[in-house]
Amino acid sequence: MECFQYHNPTKLLFGKGQLSALPDEIAAYGSRILFLYGGGSIKKSGLYDQVMSLLKGMNAEVAELGGVEPNPRLTTVKKGIELIRKRKLEFILAVGGGSVIDCAKAIAAGVPYEGNVWDIVTRKAPVPSSAVPIGTVLTLAATGSEMNGGSVITNWEENDKRSFGSIHVNPKFSILDPELTFSVPRDQTVYGIVDIMSHVFEQYFHASSNAPLQERFGESILRTVIETAPKLVNDLNNYEYREVMLLNGTFALNGTLSMGVKTDWATHMIEHAVSAVHDIPHGGGLAILFPHWMDYVSKRNPEKAAQLGVRVFGLHAEGKSTAEMASETVQALRKFWTSIGAPAALSDYGIDNKEIELMAERAMVATMIGGYVPLQKDDVREILTRSL
Length: 388
Known about the structure:
Strand content: 5-15%
Structural class: alpha/beta
Number of helices: 15
Largest sheet: 6 strands, parallel
Order of helices and strands: EHEHHEHEHHEEEEHHHHHHHHH
Low-confidence stretches: none
Strand order of the largest sheet: 1-8-5-4-2-3
CATH architecture of the largest domain: Up-down Bundle
CATH superfamily of the largest domain: Dehydroquinate synthase-like - alpha domain
CATH topology of the largest domain: Dehydroquinate synthase-like, alpha domain
Mean pLDDT: 97
């Protein structure tokens, strides 16, 4: 196990009716608010009107920025920065899923920075040491962005998608009411389930030793997701299933699983490259890529995949080699994700081999990517080719 320090400053308000606490939570940070949201879903569901009513009740000055994209764009981030500076706003309220929250974090970090915010995202600038405070109202179980300092932003003009992180952009509070996720359609619910599991995998496949507790934490989340997911996708308005999945999403990426381990994240870097070029759903891309990544790296190091198969998928190891167990685990994962309706090939999104080289290039944010089994560009190209 590696030495580590752990601190998570985000306050969670979890459960039915927690939205009513919004004015009290915001009050400590000011009354001049940027209200950030995505497409039209929060207006269709009535959540927009609820939030506006609460903000008006506290006499807040509200500036709106809607239309945040599923892969949030740098152009939208810059609009938010300009709006905060022009209106001298004090607080960002992000209402939506992980994309809206990620956009809020980039805006928050960009306001005090005098240069181009893309420098922060690409890590050419120092890690932010200050930011506009953020609060969130979550509407989708997926990214875990509601309780961490990570953000992923797309520069569409350059077909580039990058991530950055800072504890200074952790939300001050996040409101998680499972009822607010009822409006999420089946396909987006499936993508969220894949994203949650993928976050666990990125930390479970680590390059450290003697981390049994962290691995058991991850296994418990995976087993709970696998147990709940088939029920949820067939009963989207079930409060108990939504409740369980929502909490799984938060704990999959709030720092608990990564304590003391060298994590991987190669598959996310590859997916970011794919969706930067083709703008596909993040969870859909992960569903396609992760089994191929797992199969590829298990040829070099099959231990973790074999362990995953026994502990999470209930596979039997008697009389089988570690390599055979790893292969069975990959098949079990593919079968599960296909059973709940996840895509299985890049061709499902109309992607062919024409831009393999560009995607492989975009994935290489460093000379080598990944912690569990470090990958070079040739490895990434092969994983993408197998995923077609």
